[in-house]
Amino acid sequence: MKIAITGSRGFIGGSVARFAAAQGHEVLGISRSSQPEADWPGRHLHADALHADLAPALRAFQPDVFLHAAGTASVAESLADPLEDLRASTLTLANTLDSIRRAGISPTILFPSSAAVYGNPAELPVNENAPVAPISPYGFHKAACELLAREYAECFGLKIIVCRLFSVFGERQRRLLVWEIFKQLAKHSRELELQGTGEETRDFLHVEDVSSALLRLAKRTDANFTIVNVASGHEVSVRNLAEQMRTILSPQKTVRYRGETRAGDPLHWRADVTRLHKITAPWQSRDLTAALRATISDWQHA
Question: For residue 93, how many other CB atoms are within 10 A of its CB?
Answer without folding.
Answer: 27
